[in-house]
Design goal:
ten-stranded mixed beta sheet; 430 residues; homoserine dehydrogenase activity; Alpha-Beta Plaits; 3 domains; six-stranded parallel beta sheet; oxidoreductase; Dihydrodipicolinate Reductase, domain 2; NADP; NADP binding; alpha/beta
Length: 430
């Protein structure tokens, strides 16, 4: 039987995920050694708060508030950065690299904003950098892109990448709740932060899309360059109308990569109810991608929480440990900057106009849409109260986004239109 090799690990950040990683390493070390041939040993844990109660007890002397116990510790081979945020996390990772230590992180915001600098620093110092836990919790999408699907050219990727918003949208649809009501339930169950703005704005999902796009293209794609719309303004009536038309609304992150042209977006999107992604409920995440050789593939799993995220962190630690101890070359990291295509984006669209119920209104709307080369596929009018403005729902055929925005700008200025038009894209329905 081959001799088990040892790998020393240091954790920076002993919060929810850090506690989960420590517990796995301490309680399942024998299992890891049996399955991997690698004895992963927790050598140091650093956190600024030494008094807070955690769900795991550490051996005496392992926890310290001194960062040197991890970064300057010769017994630590791999550092798990689980602090979160841009700083001091970014500086700590670079410092670990300089000291010859490989790093794993779950910090998608840092990767999305400063990934280019971190990738360059890892290359400069000849160390490894793992970030499986940054996207999708327990879904191994990073490893799939870096290893399993490496022979494929990924041409499209659609992701439900934020469990909080997916839970909210599920509650809105299934229980006919307002966004505010569904958010309160999410917060009561620990699925949403006290300040949910990062989730509701779509920024969290775009951070994750940034990481995936960087791997697909091999070039850094900053989240700041991704067109992003969240669900904060989404109304229950739009979810109802979508369902009536055979669709479900999801906060969808979308990548298209064809002939060097890269298109990225995160926005509320109508998905046909028959599609696999439409069935992804509650806090689950999913990634649906297409490769030129493998065709379509779906990865599904819980996207957040202590155990799913800690599982991915430990998986990264083991993967990097094997590479280090067996002298396997590190996987290439994205290099350079990607160029995003912003012109000529095409899609089908959902519009909800709020219009006075008067003769000629529909004809006027149709005329302006036609003037901008937008063809109507489906029209649904709800006569809730003929004396007031009523909702008019239109689905279009495929059209360019630039034309859509020009048309809606003109339509919303009509005296018979009493509210700003709601617009959402359609996916998987050509």
């Amino acid at each position: 039987m081959a001799q088990t090799k040892k790998l020393g690990v240091g954790i920076i950040g002993f919060g929810t995920v850090g506690s989960g990683v420590a517990r796995i390493l301490l309680e399942r070390g024998d299992r890891l050694a049996e399955k991997t041939g690698l004895r992963v040993e927790l050598r140091a844990v650093c956190d600024s708060d030494l008094r807070r109660k955690r769900p795991v007890s550490l051996p005496p002397g392992l926890l310290s508030s001194e960062i040197e116990t991890v970064l300057e510790n010769p017994a630590v081979d791999v550092v798990a950065e689980l602090v979160g945020g841009l700083e001091p996390a970014g500086s700590l990772i670079v410092r670990a690299f300089r000291n010859g230590k490989s790093v794993v992180t779950a910090n998608k915001a840092l990767l999305a904003e400063r990934g280019d600098r971190l990738f360059a620093a890892a290359r400069e110092h000849g160390v490894r950098f793992g970030f499986e836990a940054a996207v999708g919790g327990a879904i191994p999408i990073i490893r799939a892109l870096r290893e399993s699907f490496v022979s494929n050219r990924v041409t499209s990727l659609y992701g439900i990448l934020n469990g909080t918003t997916n839970f909210i949208l599920t509650r809105m649809e299934e229980e006919c709740l307002s966004l505010e009501g569904a958010l309160k339930i999410a917060q009561a169950n620990g699925f949403a932060e006290r300040d949910p703005s990062l989730d509701l704005s779509g920024q969290d999902a775009s951070h994750k899309l940034s990481v995936l796009a960087s791997l697909v293209t091999g070039r850094f794609c900053p989240a700041s360059a991704i067109p992003t719309e969240g669900i904060a303004g989404l109304a229950l009536e739009d979810i109802r109308y979508a369902a009536e038309l055979g669709y479900r609304v999801k906060l969808l992150s979308h990548l298209k990569y064809d002939d060097g042209h890269l298109r990225l977006a995160t926005c509320p999107t109508l998905i046909p109810a028959r599609h696999l992604l439409a069935a992804v409920r509650d806090v689950y995440n999913a990634v649906f991608l297409t490769g030129d050789l493998m065709g379509e593939s779906l990865l599904l799993g819980k996207g957040a929480g202590m155990d799913p995220t800690a599982t991915s962190v430990v998986g990264d630690i083991v993967s990097l440990g094997r590479e280090i101890l067996h002298g396997v070359p590190a996987a290439p990291l994205p290099e350079g900057a990607a160029t995003l295509e912003t012109r000529g984006l095409e899609s089908r669209y959902y519009f909800r106009f709020t219009a006075l119920d008067q003769p000629g209104v529909m004809a006027r709307i149709a005329e302006l849409l036609g003037r901008h080369e937008i063809s109507i596929s489906t029209c649904l009018q709800k006569e809730e109260n003929p004396a007031e403005a009523v909702p008019v729902i239109i689905l279009t055929h495929r059209t360019r986004e630039t034309q859509v925005r020009k048309a809606l700008s003109e339509i919303d200025r009509l005296p018979v239109i009493k509210a700003r038009t709601v617009m959402m894209r359609l996916a998987f329905d050509n």
